[in-house]
Amino acid sequence: MENGYSPKPIDTTDVELSEELLLLTEQLARNVHDNWAIGRINDGWTYGPERNDTLKHNPCLVDYDDLPESEKEYDRNTAMETLKTILKLGWGIAKITE
Protein backbone atom coordinates (compact mmCIF):
# COMPACT_ATOMS: atom_id res chain seq x y z
CA MET A 1 0.00 0.00 0.00
CA GLU A 2 1.07 3.55 -0.63
CA ASN A 3 0.86 4.56 3.03
CA GLY A 4 2.85 1.56 4.28
CA TYR A 5 -0.09 -0.11 5.99
CA SER A 6 0.12 -3.88 5.81
CA PRO A 7 -2.75 -5.70 7.59
CA LYS A 8 -1.62 -8.58 9.79
CA PRO A 9 -4.67 -10.33 11.22
CA ILE A 10 -4.18 -13.25 13.58
CA ASP A 11 -4.01 -16.48 11.58
CA THR A 12 -7.09 -18.49 12.51
CA THR A 13 -6.93 -21.03 9.69
CA ASP A 14 -6.27 -23.84 12.17
CA VAL A 15 -9.26 -22.98 14.39
CA GLU A 16 -12.46 -24.97 13.91
CA LEU A 17 -15.69 -23.82 15.48
CA SER A 18 -18.02 -26.29 17.16
CA GLU A 19 -21.58 -26.70 15.89
CA GLU A 20 -22.80 -24.55 18.79
CA LEU A 21 -20.40 -21.73 17.92
CA LEU A 22 -21.40 -21.90 14.27
CA LEU A 23 -24.98 -21.25 15.42
CA LEU A 24 -23.72 -18.36 17.54
CA THR A 25 -22.02 -16.95 14.45
CA GLU A 26 -25.38 -16.24 12.82
CA GLN A 27 -26.68 -14.47 15.92
CA LEU A 28 -23.51 -12.38 16.08
CA ALA A 29 -23.73 -11.59 12.36
CA ARG A 30 -27.24 -10.22 12.88
CA ASN A 31 -25.94 -8.10 15.77
CA VAL A 32 -22.95 -6.89 13.73
CA HIS A 33 -25.37 -5.70 11.04
CA ASP A 34 -27.64 -3.99 13.57
CA ASN A 35 -24.68 -2.17 15.15
CA TRP A 36 -23.43 -1.09 11.73
CA ALA A 37 -26.94 0.16 10.84
CA ILE A 38 -27.26 2.16 14.07
CA GLY A 39 -23.94 3.85 13.32
CA ARG A 40 -25.03 4.73 9.80
CA ILE A 41 -28.43 6.01 10.94
CA ASN A 42 -26.78 8.10 13.67
CA ASP A 43 -24.54 9.59 10.96
CA GLY A 44 -27.61 10.65 8.97
CA TRP A 45 -27.83 7.78 6.49
CA THR A 46 -31.20 6.47 5.31
CA TYR A 47 -32.39 3.61 3.15
CA GLY A 48 -32.08 4.07 -0.60
CA PRO A 49 -32.35 1.47 -3.37
CA GLU A 50 -28.80 2.37 -4.48
CA ARG A 51 -25.83 3.55 -2.45
CA ASN A 52 -25.35 7.30 -2.75
CA ASP A 53 -22.64 8.81 -0.55
CA THR A 54 -23.74 12.38 -1.29
CA LEU A 55 -27.35 11.77 -0.25
CA LYS A 56 -26.29 9.24 2.41
CA HIS A 57 -28.51 6.48 1.03
CA ASN A 58 -27.63 2.83 1.51
CA PRO A 59 -29.60 -0.22 0.31
CA CYS A 60 -28.33 -2.29 3.25
CA LEU A 61 -30.26 -0.29 5.82
CA VAL A 62 -32.80 -3.10 6.07
CA ASP A 63 -33.45 -5.94 8.47
CA TYR A 64 -30.73 -8.62 8.41
CA ASP A 65 -33.19 -11.14 6.95
CA ASP A 66 -33.74 -8.82 3.97
CA LEU A 67 -30.05 -8.41 3.14
CA PRO A 68 -28.61 -9.98 0.01
CA GLU A 69 -26.70 -13.17 0.80
CA SER A 70 -23.40 -11.47 -0.09
CA GLU A 71 -23.92 -8.90 2.68
CA LYS A 72 -24.92 -11.58 5.18
CA GLU A 73 -21.69 -13.44 4.33
CA TYR A 74 -19.67 -10.30 5.10
CA ASP A 75 -21.31 -10.07 8.55
CA ARG A 76 -20.95 -13.82 9.13
CA ASN A 77 -17.26 -13.66 8.28
CA THR A 78 -16.75 -10.81 10.75
CA ALA A 79 -18.52 -12.79 13.48
CA MET A 80 -16.76 -16.05 12.67
CA GLU A 81 -13.30 -14.48 12.60
CA THR A 82 -14.01 -12.79 15.92
CA LEU A 83 -14.96 -16.12 17.51
CA LYS A 84 -11.94 -17.85 16.00
CA THR A 85 -9.62 -15.08 17.22
CA ILE A 86 -10.99 -15.36 20.76
CA LEU A 87 -10.25 -19.09 20.73
CA LYS A 88 -6.84 -18.64 19.09
CA LEU A 89 -5.86 -16.21 21.84
CA GLY A 90 -6.57 -18.87 24.44
CA TRP A 91 -9.94 -17.68 25.67
CA GLY A 92 -12.95 -19.92 26.02
CA ILE A 93 -16.54 -19.41 25.08
CA ALA A 94 -19.28 -21.14 27.03
CA LYS A 95 -23.02 -20.71 27.11
CA ILE A 96 -24.36 -20.10 30.57
CA THR A 97 -27.64 -21.95 30.91
CA GLU A 98 -30.31 -20.92 33.34
Features:
98 residues, mainly alpha, Globin-like, two-stranded parallel ribbon, 2 helices
Shape, please? globular
- Can you tell me the CATH topology? Globin-like
Query: What CATH architecture do you see?
Result: Orthogonal Bundle
Percentage of residues in helical conformation: 40-55%
Rg measurement, Å:
17 Å
Task: Tell me what portion of residues adopts beta-strand conformation.
Answer: under 5%
Give the number of helices.
2
Biggest β-sheet, characterized? 2 strands, parallel
Order of helices and strands: HEEH
Assign the structural class, choosing from mainly alpha, mainly beta, alpha/beta, alpha+beta, or little secondary structure. Answer: mainly alpha
Give me the count of strands.
2
Roughly what is the average pLDDT, rounded to an integer?
A: 95
Low-pLDDT windows of residues: none
Number of domains: 1
User: Briefly, what CATH class?
Assistant: Mainly Alpha
For the biggest β-sheet, the strand order reads 1-2
Our measurement of the CA-to-CA distance between the termini, rounded to an integer number of angstroms, reads: 50 Å
What does this structure look like?
With 98 residues, this protein is mostly helical. It has one domain: Globin-like (Orthogonal Bundle). It contains two helices and two strands; from the N terminus they run αββα. The protein has helices spanning 19-42, 69-88; strands at residues 46-47, 57-58. Strands 1-2 form a two-stranded parallel ribbon. α1 crosses α2 (69-88). The protein is globular, with a radius of gyration of 17 Å. 9% of the residues are buried.
